[in-house]
Amino acid sequence: MSDKTVVEIKGVSKSFNDQDVLKCIDLTIKHGEFLTLLGPSGCGKTTLLRMISGFEEPTNGDIYIDGKNAKGLPPHERHVHTVFQSYALFPHMTVSDNVAFGLRCNGIPENEVKPRVEEALRMVKLENFGNRKPAQLSGGQQQRVAIARAVVNRPLVLLLDEPLSSLDYRLRKTMQMELRQLQRKLGITFIFVTHDQEEALSMSDRVVVMSEGVITQIGTPRQVYEEPACLSVAKFIGEVNIFETNVSSITDGKITVNIEGMPHTYPNKHNFSVGDKALVLVRPEDVRVYDSNEVTDTSNMYRGIVEDFTYKGTTVDLMVRLDSGKVLATTEFFDEDDDSLVYTLGEKVWLHWVNGWEVILPHEG
Ligand code: ATP
User: Fold this and answer.
1) In terms of residue numbers, what domain contains 324?
2) Of 112, 161, 260, 308, which residue is most buried, by most CB within 10 angstroms?
């Protein structure tokens, strides 16, 4: 990834029939970056992608591609290429002819077309499939053809609109890795759309989290997961326990809040005043659970009762009701040799979390 900007979105809004679906979007995308637009269905991800590709024009604002204002430029003059969820391959053409299509449309001489098509097919590991028709390929192979057909044109930016969503779980995982490797090898900017947070976190250099037509956070996968900027980001990316509380005192720049009957002290990063409402967020995997035999000093722990447990192979997930009545979700890595990870319904447990791993946010609304 370089520091050079390849796409710049400045104050872009989009309305359909007087309904605002994107509101004043600002976003700068770097050359060679793997950037993911992540958000729930209907938040405007595809609309933003379609405006970059030129299939839609913004209602307001400007999009610059490689430094040039793209206003009015048709899709084929933007040096961007879109890979759709449906692959959109030509069924009557062979794999090679599908991949060659864009080159031939652009008048590239035949003696150049052949080696470029072969190179693109090699890249997606389909060098022996050139003579097949799309219907003779699996879903994953068809997806690779769609990617080869896009990269053969050497676009500046590849736009991928939920390209893996119709693949089964295993193939999807494999394709995620292959796409990431391909992106690194090619050095092309990928703008990837998904509503799958795990996919976004595992593939991207940066994630753009969207909600109801606005960007709620831009950051690295770790930033958006570990330091969510607001409640909607925290809730959308992973599970989270939410405690609503008040700032009871402030001493030496640190706030004290009461969480389910126990005081906790944190740096005052949000400039809270005494009495302000605050949210304290704790991820389930940050909570440690102990059975009664495992602990001697319980002074800084919460007591609870196991209300539900789910064995998931690699993890065991619990729902624990605290004495206060609050129910907490916890996740622990499962170890078949560790008897303390075998729970029964109604079992009494103690729990706590590492001080400092919480996210503190101002109360919203
Ligand atoms: P999904 O993950 O379900 O694909 P998305 O985040 O990509 O959702 P968009 O497809 O961008 O969302 O749609 C955002 C909003 O804009 C939706 O309310 C949708 O109904 C509306 N919309 C999109 N295209 C049009 C259109 N051509 N005419 C009218 N409304 C549209």
Assistant:
1) 239-365
2) 161
Residue 43 Cα: closest atom of ligand 1: 6
Is 219 in the same domain as 255? no
For 67-72, the CB contacts below 8 A with 24+ separation are 67/5
In ligand 1, which atom is closest to the CA atom of 39?
Answer: 6
Do residues 99 and 245 share a domain? no
Judged by average pLDDT, the poorest of 35-39, 156-160, 274-278, 293-297 is 293-297
CA atoms within 13 A on the CB side of 86: 3
Q: Tell me the percentage of the chain whose pLDDT exceeds 90.
A: 68
- Same domain for 12 and 152? yes
pTM: 0.89
Residues 273, 164 share a domain: no
pLDDT tens, residue by residue, 204-249 = 999 999 999 999 999 999 999 999 999 999 989 989 999 999 999 9
Question: Token pair of 280, please?
Answer: 């304290």
- Residue ending a domain, choose from 176, 210, 234: 234
Same domain for 275 and 261: yes
Q: What is the CATH number of the domain that holds 213?
A: 3.40.50.300
Ligand 1 lined by 39 (C-beta under 6 Å):
yes
pLDDT exceeds cutoff 80 at 105: yes
Buried b / exposed e over 157-194, threshold 16 CB at 10 Å, is bbbbbbbbeebeeebbeebbebbbebbeeeebbbbbbb
47 lines ligand 1 (CB under 6 A): yes
Ligand 1 atom nearest 17 alpha carbon? 29
As a whole number of angstroms, the distance between CA 106 and CA 116 comes to 13
pLDDT at 364 over 80: no
C-beta of 42 in contact with ligand 1 (< 6 A): yes
Instruction: Return the closest-CA partner of residue 208 out of 198, 220, 199.
Output: 220
Mutate which of 46, 48, 59 for ligand 1? The one with the most ligand atoms within 8 Å of its CB, which is: 46
- Distances 230 to 17, 18, 149, 316, 320 between C-alpha atoms, Å: 30, 28, 39, 28, 25
pLDDT tens-digit series, residues 274-291: 999 999 999 999 999 998
